[in-house]
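#onboarding

Welcome to the new folks! Below is a worked example of what a typical request in this channel looks like: someone posts a single protein sequence, and someone else replies with the predicted structure as tokens. Don't worry about understanding the tokens yet, we'll cover that in week two.

Example request:
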Amino acid sequence: MSAPTNAFRAECDGEGWPEGVRGARLLERPPGTKLVSAVWELDPGAESPQYHLHHATEELLLVVAGTATLKTPEGERMLEPGEVVHFPLGAPGAHKVLNRSDAPVRYLMIAAHSRLDVIEYLDTNEVVVYSHEPSILAEDPIFFRHELEPRKE
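Example response:
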């Protein structure tokens, strides 16, 4: 089955995601494609998997349906259908999408991935580092997860 091309009609799948979260990758893309997209659905009370930021991937969110709550370093705000938000690299781009409404929320995420990224998961103090390039030292591309000590204030 090929990937859907319509963000309004794509059938979202919940397999592998927390309860109430579903997603579908959009468009067939050749390996190494930097610009990718997915549509996500959140049931009432559901949240996107983790509050995070990327050091090498810019993202863009478009609310397709429903009223979403967006968590960023500046706090939380409501997003109505049609609203677009840019998540820049680093700390200013930290984000998480929540559904605090009584209706489903559907949104489109577009990301410009690089071949190497560092992702910080802010609620769990974890960092993930990955590369899509083959490693000389291992059979697979590099991927590792590391827990950081919380910052002392």
